[in-house]
Amino acid sequence: MGxxxxxxxxxxxxxxLLPRAFAALAAQRRPADEILLLDDASTxxxxxxxxxxxxxxxxxxxxxxxxxxGVNEMLQRGLAAATGEYVYLGASDDEAMPTxxxxxxxxxxxxxxxxxxxxxxxxxxxxxxxxxxxxxxxxRRTETFVDAGxxxxxxxxxxxxxxxxxxxxxxxxxxxxxxxxPTLGSxxxxxxxxxxxxxxxxxxxxxxxxxxHINPGGFSRTAARDTQATLAMIDxxxxxxxxxxxxxxxxxxxALFERRSRFAVARLLVVEPASDRPDPAQLxxxxxxxxxDRAAFLLAGQLxxxxxxxxxxxxxxxxxxxxxxTAILASRIDRWRHPRKIAGSAEADRPARxxx
Length: 356
Hints:
With 356 residues, this protein is an alpha/beta fold. The chain has 14 helices and twelve strands. It folds into two domains: 5-216, Spore Coat Polysaccharide Biosynthesis Protein SpsA, Chain A (Alpha-Beta Complex), CATH 3.90.550; 225-320, no CATH class. The longest helix has 19 residues, at 253-271. Mean pLDDT is 89; it is low at 345-356.
């Protein structure tokens, strides 16, 4: 029958967003062989919307769950039910580009040792504006298989190389690693992607293969606002890495991962604060430090508008040194010189540049 590709799509009260996700799946040049909608005990019309789309997507299977268990539990159940050699871990509030499955499956077929194939992702804000491209630092400028050793080298200067909406995985590699770890919350899929890439390597495709629609009420945004739970989650991830030093994690990586994770969460707290200004206590909890840090964050919390945010972000960058500024600048220049066309999305006629 050929290669089978499974889509796992968790859903909880996303009736309003599901049509966009389903339309993107219906538009794939290489259709999925099965689509598993894991409905996490939704109380809105999600099941009715899914049933309506089954006429257009006959490979769609609706798997309603009796009780709400969370995104990672839905992903685990989906992986257990999936039959495809390759899997796409979707999100009902994001959008796969029409070429994603075709490009990713072709890349994985060409590189049978790779655990995943990942492309670039366009970020779109709640108002529909383009917010730039991810990953922030381009791993490669042409389609390339990045082996395990080269992945380790890349992690010296960059992180978050894989964004879920633009990634297709080899299911056997996920199973061998023990599937998704639900105790890692919103970091679970990113943690798994790093581990698999460090064990097996990955294919990077420098094309926009997904659109990440930023949702202030989404999983990662909501988790970031609970600083104590987030710090505990980061600590669990670091501990797991330290237990696997050398197979596959380099000895230097767990501490760097923690620092970058703290920065990523603190950045969200600055850019998307719960109130009109960043909370100094939250920033200090994420960044750590002493009296000088406290003074900087207190001042940032008192300054109006973007002045306070710029000060907070600048201090966080100096304090935590998350990624190579030279590599960030090089990627921005590359994307400016070679703008990406976002075919098949609401941004179709607008070249994507970073930053927008």
